Amino acid sequence: MKLRTCPQCGSAEITLDRLMGITGIRYKCNTCGYSGDVIVEQDVEKKFRK
Ligand SMILES: [Zn+2]
Fold this sequence. Notes:
The chain is an all-beta fold. It has no helices and 5 strands.
């Protein structure tokens, strides 16, 4: 499982916006307001292992 986090503030409060434009996908951070197609993915299997 991958956790998407903000490249600016590191928050996991990321919203995935599907646009009809060129890139098609854009991410938006609900914490700092960052918006763009660059996102940091972290492997969370180790942290949230059941
Ligand atoms: Zn952010």
